[in-house]
Amino acid sequence: MILQGSWTIKEVVRKFYPLFRDINHWPTICSTVERLRPTTKRIQVKWERPPVGRLKVNTDESYLVDSDNTGIGGIMRDHHGELIMAFAVSVQCNNNNSAEALAVKWCYHQGYTDFILELDSMVIVDMVTNHDSNNRKLKHIIDKILKIKNATNFEVKHCYRECNQVADSFAKLASTTDQNQVVYSYFDLHRTSKGPFQLDKWQMPCIRSKFDKANFYVR
User: Fold this and answer.
1) Backbone angles phi, psi at 134, to 5 degrees
2) Residues in Cβ contact with 59 at an 8 Å cutoff, skipping those fewer than 6 apart
3) Which residue has the higher pLDDT, 83 or 209?
4) CA distance 211 to 141
5) In 3-state terms, what secondary structure has residue 128?
6) How do strand 36-45 and strand 83-91 relate by DSSP bridges?
7) 107-142 per-position pLDDT tens digit
């Protein structure tokens, strides 16, 4: 068992550190492993404007476990990045994914049927795109979204959370203040939303940093 464990560790280290010698001295192996550090990936991301003639809706949720408060927020913009409508709504919900479904339902009830919907929840996006409602915990959520999708002409896309900051600010506003609001002008945006909104409109990129768990280097 010890030999098997030692061999496995050395193979893992050798995969990412080709110069690692075939050392059988256990303290040396441990010392090498302890110096492994995950590499960091950094990429530029930005909110992308929709095609000419189409609208884009970004939605997000904010679920506070301690208080059990949930807020959904969203913003609709045109191909110039101009504000069409933004909303912050406090809802009754017991998990994050359910809030995403409620955001889609809210947009539909406002009469918007032809738009691009962006979420930073890859799980929901994949399940809606693949029409996959086999997950028992999320089945009722996905079924609701698919029902609306079949009755409208909206497209679902994934975006990084760095590109979803305006919707996130509205969701947090609803969950923390228990206030509902709908705005149609930039000047009526909450102060926490104006900065991210302008950065999106100017197409300013954000730096996304993420640890690459699959690759390591040895210092």
Assistant:
1) -80, -20
2) 72, 73, 74, 100, 103, 104, 107, 117, 118, 119, 167
3) 83
4) 31
5) helix
6) unpaired
7) 788 888 888 989 888 888 888 888 887 777 778 778
Residues in the chain: 219
For 142, other C-beta atoms within 10 Å of its C-beta total: 22
**The pTM is what?**
0.76
Q: What share of the chain is helix, strand, coil (3-state, %, to 5)?
A: 40, 30, 30
- Give the distance from CA 110 to its chain's centroid: 24
* Buried-exposed string 34-65: b where 16+ CB fall within 10 A, e elsewhere: eeeeeeeeeeeebbebbeeeebbbbbbbbbee
In one-letter notation, the amino acid at residue 105 is K
CA distance 186 to 216: 45
Cα diameter, the chain: 69
The packing angle between helices 139-151 and 122-129, to 10°, is 60
> d(Cα 55, Cα 78) in Å, to the nearest integer?
5
The tally of CA atoms less than 13 A away on the side-chain side of residue 68 is 3
Separation between Cα atoms, residue 213 and residue 219, nearest integer Å: 16
User: What is the phi-psi region of residue 36: left when phi exceeds 0, alpha when psi lies from -120 to 50, beta otherwise?
Assistant: beta
